[in-house]
């Protein structure tokens, strides 16, 4: 799913009631995510060992570049990065041992991750890091969060994966209102395809 498809999904959800206010909640979460890290490199991103959030990391990095919000580019924390991993994929969970004030940790997990990760999240919280969570049925993880967003576990167009696209789109928007997102998307389309020329 690209940003055009994500915006179309957002419009679809809004037209059908926004999944009981989920669109508004995702806008608020995106705003909180954008403001949480106070410096470049201060947004840490983690998930379960068997489902590390590579996809969201890539989208947040793209959105940070497009919106000129360098603090939104996350540091993906991996459970077991290989010794020869490139720098952007070499950070391990040990980075959480030094996480503290001015930094934010976004944990993405459909269900509760292993206790070892939960303990690291709790420790980072006690040292002053801002904890944000995106989940579907992770009650323990949600209990550690300063800001939490839960994706409804119901049939329909809003899935856990598509929700991550909507969050990254909202996080990079300086105006989290629907009109702001549409305006930003329109500017992007015009930049890619050139201005529209009226034919007579």
Structural notes for this entry:
Helix 1 (3-15) runs antiparallel to helix 7 and helix 2 crosses helix 6 (160-172). The protein has 200 residues and is an alpha/beta fold. It has seven helices and five strands, in the order H-H-E-H-E-E-H-E-H-E-H-H. It has helices spanning 3-15, 18-35, 54-66, 115-126, 139-142, 160-172, 178-193; strands at 43-46, 75-76, 104-111, 130-137, 147-150.
Low-confidence stretches: 176-180, 195-200
Biggest β-sheet, characterized?
5 strands, parallel
The number of helical runs is 7
* Rounded average pLDDT: 83
Q: Tell me the total number of β-strands.
A: 5
* Secondary-structure element pattern, one letter each: HHEHEEHEHEHH
Essential attributes:
200 residues, 7 helices, alpha/beta
Give the SSE map.
Blueprint: H1 3-15, H2 18-35, E1 43-46, H3 54-66, E2 75-76, E3 104-111, H4 115-126, E4 130-137, H5 139-142, E5 147-150, H6 160-172, H7 178-193
Parallel strand pairs: 1-2, 1-3, 3-4, 4-5
Helix pairs in contact: 1-6, 1-7, 2-6, 3-6
